[in-house]
Each structure stands twice: as structure tokens, then as C-alpha cells.
Design goal:
Elements (H helix, E strand, L loop, with lengths): L13 E6 L2 H10 L5 E5 L5 H9 L3 E3 L5 H4 L2 E7 L3 H13 L3 E4 L12 E5 L2 E5 L6 H14 L4 H18 L3 H13 L1 H7 L3 H13 L7 E6 L10 H9 L2 E4 L5 H4 L7 E4 L11 H13 L3 E6 L2 H13 L4 E5 L15 H10 L2
Length: 350
């Protein structure tokens, strides 16, 4: 990653747009949705550009800007066809202390404008570091189709509720779980249906109750090294994990799909390592579940998966076991189930 994505506070900041064609109109319409103060420099602007500026009440200057004109701007967007003029204005903008975006010219740009899905205040930005903006727009279109128009209501509702949650639910882990439950359950459904009062009443009931820690364990059978073959359920499970307990052969590419804050314990391959011992792994998982952790155990061995599921259930821990990937086993295993054990494994699979 050569460029790190950030959201920049623009309220009250100045953005200068320099251009005279369709690209300038597109950037004008995009930045008019922000809280920034816009100024348009259009040395040879067309009537469509002036109409767009009038629509958004943007100040128009028919001159090509000098360095003093760009001073105080947080960002300068250059949308000109002539390479020499693009370079000259980009250099003036940098001397004035502004960040520069030159449309369709990554080499001259300090920042790139992503493809945006706007469900204010929920915003998704998709970028390609200037390499493939059309691809970024296609990805944005897919995400846009997934997010309901009212998704922003969920974010606003959570923001309004946050002070109460912070005051009443002290452990950060439990606050995170409260919001996950909020977004994934009936409260979210009520909000998306426009039934905000009912959603508020239900959320308040949840806040006033005390369900205690709700730990669980899910055993994932990893049969491929390709993270793109993760099932939807497995991908969601990895995003919910507090603790990952991982066999040595499970690739990092799979673990990269897990929640970054999740703790990770990789089972040792050395015979003298205490975490190699089957009983030690089972005790580790069981203790974590009882303390309220959501544990994901990843292995490529169905035999180990079955043995640990049986041991955990014997110690009173409910187990869910499922295949993590939609591919056949990437490597042979030495497990040959009897009819009884095969039936037991099938019982564990959803």
C-alpha cells in the first residue's frame, strides 16, 4: 500500500478547483456534497460549468490562479487537459502549502479522490492509488447495491446512543458486542424500515438488561490457502473473533481476513511446545469461552477438529464446527473416520 486511506475534516476548509471541462464539473459536484468552502477557477469555462457552479452557489473566478490565490486552500484539484498548465498549477499549489490532486495524472498528485458510496454519515471509499479508477468505480457500484439507502440511519442512531452505552457498559469488549448486536439484529431492521421509535425502545431495553458475557467457540476446517474461497459464514466468524487459536499450517492470508484486534495464538509445531498438547489447546479454548471470549479455532485437519469438538463438548462447551473454505482439502490428511465418528462430524456441521 503506497497510499494510506484517510478521512479528512473539511468543515470550513477551502478547496480550489481549477478546470474548464467535464472533469471539473464532476469534481465540483462531488466536493459540493462536503462541508468545505469551494472556489472554482475556470479560465475558459463552458456554460455547463458555470451552471453547475451557480447550482451549488460556488464562487467563480475566470482567471488562472496564482500562488497567492491558492494560499490557504487545504486541497487544490486540477482538471485541465494541457500537461504544461497542469504542472504549473500543481507546483503553485504546493508552494502555497496545499495538497494537490491532478485528474488522471497520478505522478503529479499528492492525493487521490476515491470512488465513494455516500450513506451519510456512513461513507465507503474505494481507491486504486490512481492506477485503475474505472475498476474502483465498478467495485463501488457493487458495494452501493449492497448498502440500503437508509444505512446512514444506523450510524446516526449509534452515534446518538454512544454516550449512554459508554456510561452503562464499561468493558470495551462488551460495548463492541452491544453495537454488533445492534447492527445485526432487530434494532437495525426496525431502523431500516423507518420505525425509529420502536428501535429506540428495544435498544433501551437491551441497555437496561444484563445478559452477561456470551462466549462461544467455532471450529473452522481450513481446506484451501486461498482467502477468496472463504465461505460467507466463515468470513463473518473471523470478523467477530476475540481470540484465534491457529494450527501452524493455516496460512497468514486466511488470518488476514480476521478482525485486526483479535488476539492470536498459533499452535506450536515443536514436540516440546506446551501448546502442541491436545489437552492444553482444549483447556485454553474452554477457559477463553468461559471468560466471555468468542474463540475461532482454525485447523486443516478434520481429525483434529473432531477430537477437539468432542473434548470441548465433554467439558460443557457448546461447539459449532464448519468448513471455512469452499474447496477440497489442499493436502491429504491421515484421518480415516469410522462410520460412528463420521456421523458425529456431520452432526457438528450446519
Amino acid at each position: 500500500m503506497r497510499h494510506f486511506p484517510l478521512f479528512v475534516a473539511l468543515e470550513g476548509e477551502r478547496i480550489a478547483i481549477v478546470g474548464d471541462g467535464e472533469a471539473a464539473i464532476a469534481k465540483l459536484r462531488l466536493f459540493a456534497r462536503t462541508a468545505a468552502r469551494l472556489r472554482l477557477f475556470a479560465p475558459a469555462g463552458r456554460s455547463e460549468l458555470f451552471a453547475a457552479a451557480a447550482e451549488f452557489a460556488v464562487e467563480i473566478d475566470p482567471r488562472e490562479p496564482g500562488e497567492e490565490d491558492l494560499s490557504g486552500s487545504r486541497l487544490v484539484v486540477v482538471a485541465l487537459a494541457d500537461p504544461g498548465r497542469r504542472l504549473a498549477i500543481a507546483e503553485r499549489a504546493r508552494r502555497a502549502g496545499a495538497l494537490v490532486n491532478v485528474v488522471d495524472d497520478p505522478a503529479l498528485s499528492d492525493v487521490f479522490v476515491p470512488a465513494i458510496v455516500d450513506r451519510d454519515p456512513l461513507v465507503v471509499a474505494v481507491g486504486s492509488e490512481g492506477e485503475a479508477p474505472v475498476l474502483a468505480r465498478l467495485v463501488r457500484a457493487r458495494i452501493e447495491a449492497m448498502l440500503p439507502e437508509r444505512s446512514g440511519r444506523l450510524a446516526r442512531f449509534a452515534g446518538k446512543l454512544r454516550p449512554q452505552v459508554t456510561a452503562r457498559i464499561l468493558p470495551a469488549r462488551e460495548r463492541r458486542r452491544f453495537f454488533e448486536r445492534l447492527f445485526e439484529g432487530p434494532v437495525a431492521s426496525l431502523l431500516l424500515a423507518g420505525r425509529e421509535r420502536e428501535a429506540e425502545e428495544l435498544a433501551q431495553r437491551w441497555l437496561e438488561g444484563d445478559d452477561g458475557p456470551r462466549g462461544w467457540v467455532r471450529l473452522l476446517w481450513v481446506a484451501s490457502e486461498d482467502p477468496d474461497l472463504l465461505t460467507l459464514v466463515a468470513a463473518e466468524t473471523l470478523q467477530q473473533a476475540d481470540l484465534l487459536v491457529v494450527d501452524p499450517e493455516v496460512p497468514v492470508r486466511i488470518l488476514d481476513r480476521a478482525r485486526r484486534e483479535a488476539r492470536r495464538i498459533r499452535r506450536c509445531a515443536a514436540p516440546d511446545c506446551p501448546q502442541t498438547d491436545h489437552a492444553a489447546v482444549v483447556r485454553l479454548v474452554a477457559d477463553a469461552v468461559r471468560s466471555g471470549d468468542r474463540v475461532v479455532r482454525l485447523t486443516s485437519s478434520p481429525g483434529r477438529l473432531f477430537a477437539e469438538a468432542r473434548a470441548l463438548e465433554a467439558s460443557g462447551i457448546a461447539v459449532t464446527a464448519l468448513p471455512a473454505t469452499a474447496a477440497p482439502l489442499a493436502r491429504p490428511t491421515d484421518w480415516r473416520p469410522t462410520p460412528e465418528t463420521a456421523a458425529r462430524v456431520l452432526e457438528l456441521l450446519p
